[in-house]
């Protein structure tokens, strides 16, 4: 090799980059600071010093968690912890001698001490939020070199230095511990008079706030406001104003306007405000991530000195009548409670921005409309991703499982303050979550005050899990169960947390997973063993059916069904997660997609039942399972559909109409497999075909098929970008073989590095170049190098035709102060289109108001049985279990809705009379909260409900908290020997005329 020639080329490249730095970087405000870091795992105290020799350390580009290779290989509690150091040398651009220099970390886990040129700058300790530091006094001007060193500590038991208090959310059950610097880092270069950054901790600044008011959705109008905090660090007073520009997604300027001019004294900070009424706005919506770029340019003496670009969208929200309104249309919450780490095998959470878009857009494509990030504040990259894909968000601050006091509560309020300031311009955030469990009214008032101070105009409700009788919270909702309200929205913060491995189709398909089988060796949070995990260990058939069954209870109480309604709920979780689990694998398998985001049958079931804002918009059908069984197999076939009726055909022969249950499930008993085509056809109420779905039998495995999923615009050669490479076993016609489990050997050559995927087996096959397909498909990661070129991927398997794939990588700016930001040029997801102007639901029944109540016993509590407060109830105590309601008018009642304490485990024998006529006698079913009883339509004004015997226990719904505690569903212990009828809420309905 001609080393002299190589060195000459390298020297020329360095000169080119240096020239670029000297000529152009002085005009840039924000830089990508992810490139050119060194990493050492272990504590070396001298590493903070400028002249420390780090040449033998590993070279990494951020984001990079030092233990990320363990993701899904080990149990969450076994993820490695300890001290790790990150170091980087860099030059500031020429012409920045008199500038302000800030560094922004999107997050460090758990603690990060920052040193610049050997001097201590600051210590961040909460492990969840972004933070910024003013490093102006510590850096050296061009052309001198600067050194930044960051000491990190991700100890599970880390305690705040000043108070010795632990952080409640640093928890081994849900907060996967990817240590070091797992998120992006940016450098900001500003003038001495500048718009501040939205980084309150350390800097004490609030940045720029963009919001809209005076919405006219129909006419596409709103008033856009910009408030920017400006600071003068000059020694003399200045006159300053803002020039605001609004550009649409194509980059066309649609409006510009000015603020007032103010005088800023030396070291003074003030807010500059500007606003303008804008027409022809495209409003951000579900599945319609329409974003504008708002540029606020700061002018001092009419000379531009600083600018801030904010990507945001405009949408109108309201939270009233027990419902959520988006752009004047009611939207029922149906989505996912997702772990904030949102991790992937071998990578953890440190993925490129486009991959966050890919994952989050799948939630939308499954017809989910909201993601509730669990327990801690989400990464800014995911927040911005949800903006682009049109996915509503519930943003927590930090919590474990309960309210706290003292310093631990102060930590939570500080985190909420910082998170609101940092994320208040992101339109996808519509809820702020103050706690993963109920908090006191005093604490709720504190959180509300923080929201009102820092985001008074953002159209976001603040509340907490539970908060069912709060006078302060703006939304609430339990975990697992259904709540209803006539005032603030109530939606379940998680439900249907059962688990199922994607590998298992059913008990008739190899490896023949029978319902309920799985490991029981895991420990609960409190250290007790999981004695029976069968209720949480499903195959794909059962898991998909369970998700539909659980959703039905929410759908039954949807908007349009009365004055008290449920606003929905979120399924836990979307993608299998390296967190608390109950099965044989060492990770959570509750996802609708597996860890590599390959869909399970649950995904397609949700596409069917969630296709709409409230009512389903387009009739759909999905046949659960496959059609490649062994000869002689006879099994029940289940179709998920929103049609009124479903007919099943095997090779063109009708098997008749399915047995309907839980509205969306249609079961066909004892269907015998015959190779060919199985088809489901859905019909509406008048017998017209409205949807269909079919599955064809695949032939014998013949070949492998490779496809890639890459960043839009091409894979970037930055030693950090990833491509998903999917491998399928297909027949000779290219159809996937759904029962194939072949072992695949991968070979990666060229400018790429094999990373790997996941499958059931030793160490979950993490980082293995040999791993099996499951249900005929699997995926691996390939990482780009820092050199543009081609990546060649080859997959081989015994007795199958191999396949090859070439991925081209594109050059990017890899300077240590890079001009290319991680999310640059990523497109928005607009497939669902703007918010429809039509109503989102059709009213299906009228509620009849109760005006008086008379109980044979415990009259003092009788009104609690219909007070729109689920924390109160009436029961008969020592007397007869009989209660009579007087209605506001005579009505022909056809339904009675009850929430009875012990709803998931108790069945009550009751009778119901209308004006003395018996309209119902029977046993109440179990549910997730409310039961709807169809009664003989009868006109009357007085309704009597009476217990006819002793309640019976039921195991129909098996729900156990992660603490190992069985939830009693509101049952209160008492000493009465009389049979009890505890009514939490009762409602009476007549049909819509």
Task: Please describe the structure with a list of short key phrases separated by commas or semicolons.
993 residues, mainly beta, seven-stranded parallel β-sheet, seven-stranded antiparallel β-sheet, globular, disordered N terminus, DUF4982 domain-containing protein, hydrolase activity, hydrolyzing O-glycosyl compounds, Glyco_hydro_2_N, Beta-gal/glucu_dom_sf, hydrolase
Mean pLDDT: 94
Q: What proportion of the residues is helical, as a percent range? A: 10-25%
Specify the structural class.
Answer: mainly beta
Distance between the termini: 88 Å
- Total helical elements: 7
Portion in beta strands: 35-45%
- Which consecutive residue ranges, at least 5 long each, have pLDDT under 50? 1-26
Dominant shape: globular
From the alpha-carbon coordinates, what is the Rg to the nearest angstrom?
30 Å
Query: For the report, how would you describe the main beta sheet?
Result: 7 strands, parallel
Number of strands: 59
Widest β-sheet, arrangement of strands? 29-28-27-26-25-33-30
Family: Belongs to the glycosyl hydrolase 2 family.
Signal peptide: 1-21
Domain Glycoside hydrolase family 2 catalytic: 319-456
Keywords: Glycosidase, Hydrolase, Signal
């Amino acid at each position: 090799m001609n080393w002299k020639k190589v060195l000459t080329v390298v020297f020329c490249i360095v000169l080119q980059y240096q020239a670029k730095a000297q000529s152009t970087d002085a005009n840039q405000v924000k830089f990508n600071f992810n490139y050119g870091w060194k990493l050492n795992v272990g504590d070396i105290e001298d590493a903070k010093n400028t002249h420390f020799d780090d040449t033998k350390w590993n070279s990494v580009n951020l984001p990079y968690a030092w233990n990320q290779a363990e993701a899904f290989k080990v149990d969450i509690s076994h993820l490695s912890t300890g001290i790790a150091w990150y170091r980087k040398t860099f030059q500031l651009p020429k012409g920045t001698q008199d500038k302000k220099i800030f560094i922004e970390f999107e997050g460090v886990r758990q603690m990060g001490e920052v040193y610049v040129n050997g001097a201590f700058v600051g210590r961040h300790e909460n492990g969840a939020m972004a933070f910024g530091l003013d490093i102006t006094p510590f850096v050296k001007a061009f052309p001198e070199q600067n050194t930044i060193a960051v000491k990190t500590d991700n100890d599970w038991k880390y305690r705040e230095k000043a108070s010795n208090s632990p952080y409640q959310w640093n928890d081994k059950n849900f907060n996967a511990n990817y240590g070091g610097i797992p998120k992006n880092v940016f450098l900001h270069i500003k003038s001495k008079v500048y718009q501040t950054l939205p980084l309150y901790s350390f800097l004490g600044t609030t940045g720029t706030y963009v919001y809209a008011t005076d919405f006219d959705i129909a006419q596409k109008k709103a008033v856009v406001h910009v408030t920017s905090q400006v600071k003068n660090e000059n020694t003399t007073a200045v006159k300053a104003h803002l020039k605001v520009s609004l550009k649409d997604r194509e980059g066309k300027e649609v409006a510009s306007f000015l603020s007032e001019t103010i005088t800023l004294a030396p070291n003074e900070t003030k807010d500059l405000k500007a606003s303008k009424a804008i027409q022809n706005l495209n409003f951000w919506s579900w599945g319609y991530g329409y974003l504008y770029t708002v540029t606020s340019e700061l002018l001092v003496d009419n000379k531009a000195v600083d600018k801030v670009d904010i990507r945001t969208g405009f949408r109108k929200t309201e939270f009233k009548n027990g419902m959520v309104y988006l752009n004047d249309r009611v939207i029922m919450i149906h989505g996912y409670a997702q772990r904030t780490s949102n991790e992937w095998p071998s990578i953890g959470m440190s993925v490129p921005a486009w991959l966050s878009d890919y994952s989050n857009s799948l939630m939308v494509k499954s017809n989910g409309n909201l993601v509730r990030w669990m327990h801690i504040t989400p990464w800014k990259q995911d927040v911005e991703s949800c903006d682009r894909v049109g996915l509503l968000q519930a943003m927590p601050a930090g919590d474990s499982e309960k309210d706290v006091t003292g310093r631990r509560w102060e930590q939570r309020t500080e985190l909420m303050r910082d998170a609101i300031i940092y994320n208040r311009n992101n339109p996808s955030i519509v809820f702020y979550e103050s706690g993963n469990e109920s908090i006191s009214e005093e604490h709720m008032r504190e959180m509300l005050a923080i929201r009102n101070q820092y985001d008074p105009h953002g159209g976001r409700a603040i509340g907490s899990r539970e908060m069912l009788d709060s006078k302060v919270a703006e939304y609430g909702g339990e975990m697992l169960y259904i709540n209803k309200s006539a005032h603030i929205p109530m939606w379940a913060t998680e439900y249907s947390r059962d688990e199922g491995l994607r590998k298992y189709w059913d008990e008739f398909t190899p490896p023949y997973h029978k319902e309920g089988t799985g490991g029981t060796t895991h420990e609960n949070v409190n250290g007790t063993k999981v004695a029976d995990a069968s209720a949480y260990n499903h195959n794909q058939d059962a898991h998909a059916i369970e998700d539909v069954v659980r959703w039905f209870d929410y759908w039954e109480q949807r908007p349009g069904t009365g004055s008290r309604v449920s606003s929905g709920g979120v399924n836990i979780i979307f993608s299998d997660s390296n967190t608390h689990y109950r099965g044989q694998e060492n990770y959570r398998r509750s996802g609708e997609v597996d860890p590599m985001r390959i869909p399970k049958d649950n995904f397609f079931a949700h596409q069917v039942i969630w296709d709409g804002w409230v009512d389903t918009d387009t009739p759909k059908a999905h046949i659960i399972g496959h059609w490649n069984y062994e000869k002689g197999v006879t099994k029940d076939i289940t179709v998920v559909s929103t049609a009124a009726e479903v007919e099943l055909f095997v090779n063109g022969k009708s098997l008749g109409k399915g047995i309907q249950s839980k509205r969306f499930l249609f079961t066909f008993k004892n269907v015998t497999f015959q190779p060919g085509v199985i088809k489901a056809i859905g019909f509406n109420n008048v017998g017209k075909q409205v949807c269909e779905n079919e599955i064809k039998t695949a032939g014998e495995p013949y070949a492998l098929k490779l496809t890639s999923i890459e960043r839009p615009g091409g894979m970037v050669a930055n030693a950090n970008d990833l491509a998903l490479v999917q491998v399928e076993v297909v027949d000779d016609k290219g159809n996937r073989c759904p029962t194939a489990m072949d072992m695949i050997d991968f070979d990666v050559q060229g400018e790429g590095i094999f990373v790997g995927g996941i499958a059931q087996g030793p160490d979950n096959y993490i980082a293995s170049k040999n791993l099996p397909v499951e249900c005929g498909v699997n995926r691996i990661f390939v990482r780009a190098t820092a050199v543009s070129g081609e990546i060649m991927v080859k997959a081989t398997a015994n007795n199958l035709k191999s396949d090859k794939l070439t991925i081209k990588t594109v050059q990017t700016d890899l300077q240590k102060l890079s001009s290319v930001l991680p999310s640059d040029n990523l497109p928005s997801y607009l497939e669902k289109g703007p918010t429809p102007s039509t109503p989102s639901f059709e009213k299906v029944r009228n509620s009849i108001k109760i005006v008086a109540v008379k109980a044979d016993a415990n009259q003092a509590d009788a009104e609690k049985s219909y007070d729109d407060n689920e924390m109160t109830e009436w029961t008969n105590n020592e007397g007869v279990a009989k209660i009579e309601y007087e209605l506001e008018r005579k009505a022909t009642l056809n339904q009675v809705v009850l929430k009875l304490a012990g709803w998931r485990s108790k069945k009550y024998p009751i009778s119901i009379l209308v004006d003395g006529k018996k309209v119902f006698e029977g046993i109440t079913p179990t549910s997730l909260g409310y039961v709807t009883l169809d009664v003989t339509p009868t006109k009357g004004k007085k309704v009597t409900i009476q217990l006819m015997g002793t309640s019976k226990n039921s195991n129909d719904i098996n729900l156990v908290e992660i603490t190992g505690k069985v939830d009693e569903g509101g049952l209160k212990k008492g000493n009465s020997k009389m049979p009890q009828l505890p009514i939490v809420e009762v409602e009476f309905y007549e049909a819509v005329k």
